[in-house]
Amino acid sequence: MSDGLENVVAAETVLSEVDGLAGRLIIRGRSLDDLAGRTRFEEAVRLLFEGFFDDLPYDLARPLGEARAEVFAEVEALDARLLTREPIEAVRALTARLADGDDLATALRLVAAPAVFAAAVVRARDGLPPVAPDAALGHSADILRMLRGRPADAAQAAALDTYLVTVCDHGLNASTFAARVAASTRAGLTSAVLAGISALKGPLHGGAPGPVIDMLDGIGTPQNARAWIEAALARGDRLMGFGHRVYRVRDPRAGALKGAVRRLTEGAGAAPGRLAFAEAVEAAALAILKERKPDRALDTNVEFYTALLLEALDFPPAAFTCVFAMGRVAGWIAHAREQLAGGRLIRPQSRYVGPEPLRAA
Length: 361
Ligand code: ACO
Hints:
Strand order of the largest sheet: 1-2-3
CATH class of the domain at 40-153 and 168-205 and 318-342: Mainly Alpha
CATH superfamily of the domain at 40-153 and 168-205 and 318-342: Citrate Synthase, domain 1
Helix content: 40-55%
Oligomer: single chain
Number of helices: 16
Structural class: mainly alpha
Bound molecules: acetyl coenzyme *A
CATH topology of the domain at 40-153 and 168-205 and 318-342: Citrate Synthase, domain 1
Strand content: under 5%
């Protein structure tokens, strides 16, 4: 038995490959370096959906915009009770209101859902009314507009596109596996996406970038980094944004996102000095992890620079996991369709190690 299914191959996929030794990510035959920063999110969705829907249009921008307008109707179900929950739980609850199905219209509504719902949830937590989608805008530009109530500039929309494309798919990660298991029962795409959201929200997976900001804020100055990190590790805490099940070198997505933060900072989108401070914390963390865990290659993962990028785009840390879901939802749906097309019911076995029934004397 493999603890945590490490090194177990549980599916064949044409969608993405994670090469943990080379630090390389391929999405449908394209390297991440080739895609990130050069591709709009709609194009990445199309790339992932290609071959899984018969009626897939060439340009998804308008149909996705119309799907945003459609799901916006569900925002009225966002009540005071839901607003007491974590944003990702509120987004999950609103997504659960969408009908199940396996067609392209369902898929596009599900891609639209985390974007529309998260923007409305963030605003409602600040006492602000929701902003209706503009179907004519690109997905990223509209997300930022729905979030802030004013248009985003091109650099900001491009930075969000870079983020969403960077995280749109990543092999058989925990949330994608959960989505494939749900899809394998033929429950429908909404069920698969809900399974994905539920697995994503944990701090060992998509819940890490919010706590990265807590760590940076707790450290405060570069000089304080070593002492703060050593105290955290002494308490038995894990450093958020470091370590990965598959990568034994730096996560290639970290570099793509750091580049996006730098471009945005140069365009005055982020607080000056924040990136340099984060780099100092990253260097200290890597040095200490190497000292403490010389046998385990622990390097920077996607979540570290995700935190900086989403902060620079005005997302509150409490909503970072929702933004991750906005991108990864495309991968969950493509994997669900792939599972349906060729896969059997996913049903592994467990080994019983409990007590035997008592024999009657
Ligand atoms: N900080 C401190 N120690 C760590 C870290 C970390 N970030 N990551 C791993 N370790 C240690 C573990 O404590 C363990 O030590 P031990 O053998 O003495 O118990 C050793 O390194 C191996 O760790 P595992 O738990 O076996 O690694 P696993 O592959 O199960 O976990 C994971 C990978 C969950 C990402 C882990 O590295 C972690 O918790 N990182 C912090 C959370 C995080 O950044 N999550 C986002 C991951 S990226 C993503 O999902 C999008």
